[in-house]
Amino acid sequence: RLYQIPFGVPDCTEESEAHTLYLVGDFSAPAEFFVTLGVFSFLYAMAALVLYLRFHSLYSENTKLPFGDFCVTVCFAFFWLVAAAAWGKGLSDVKAATRPGALLGAMAVCQAEDNLCSPGTTPSMGLANISVV
Asked: Would you say which domain of life the source belongs to (predicted)?
């Protein structure tokens, strides 16, 4: 929800009042999907562990239970792949929206020929990249 993040932009005139601008974009859905699927996967793994350890005889006698477990596991694997791809796309969109060069383009004060604006360094997104991998 980048649209909720304000940042101050100097006016560079006599009044020197800072204008407040907001970032553009809402990339929360892919991240929420990724985290929700992770929580559900954890809960299912805990339930399956209880089933395997506590009710082993029920699991070995019933032929439909292992097949159902396999189908649920395949579904979780597919949705995990989809969630990782969605979060990767969401992260790339967040990087594009917060790129210093893109932010300078949104500032009217940097469009004037008299003002010299430089983007500086690109922020480190190493931990965010690791979350996708």
From this structure: Eukaryota
